[in-house]
Amino acid sequence: MTALTLTQGLTRKARFAGLLYLVIIVTGLGAELALRAPLIDLGDADATAAAILAAPSQFRFAIAADIVMALSDAGLAILLYLIFRAMAPGLALSAMIFRLIQTVLIGASLMALLTAWLVLNRAEALADASTLALVFLDLHTHGYDLGLVFFGVNSLIMGLLVWRSGLFAKAFGAGLALAGLVYLIGSSLRFFAPDLSSAFMPAYGLTILAEMAFCLRLLSQKAPR
């Protein structure tokens, strides 16, 4: 594994990657925390149905933000591969594939949100539509976490690539690797020990810090003189 050499082309790719990373962070957190979280209570089907039907634009805008996030994530996966392939083509390709799998799973899970919306808007023709819609909303949550399993593997590989690149401080690589562990543990708890999942949620703050730090580092990449 050889260190990367900074070039004008690599600098442009790094800055564009940083921009896409920023879009992903803003749209991803915005969709989940700012737009969707106030509407959905997985413990109360009727209240959730009422909240979504009372704010249809907010619910649909959250889906639109997730679509933008998924598109940006696919672009970022390709850019990061182009940046790191000269150093370790096998690892760079593996990282891209795992990130793209995550993107596909998160994109596919949006169908569960759309199905919940369709169910709620046809409530008069369905028995217990609120409960059925909540099942699909919960399915979206699990689909998102399944995607994060693959993203966790991607983050571990990216942590190694960043650590060995010679272009970034090793702390950024360590941060990404730590984020990967958090994603893997968090998703494992969601599927196999859901009672512990809520207690682990604060650990996701580490992922936000690590990814935002790397995003800003990419955006600040300076061209060689």
TrEMBL record:
Coiled-coil spans in chain: none
InterPro entries registered for this protein in UniProt: DUF4386 (IPR025495)
Keyword Membrane in record: yes
Membrane spanning stretches: 19-39, 59-84, 96-120, 146-163, 175-193, 199-219
Xref: Pfam families: DUF4386 (PF14329)
Keywords: Membrane, Transmembrane, Transmembrane helix
Descriptive protein name: DUF4386 domain-containing protein
Keyword 4Fe-4S: no
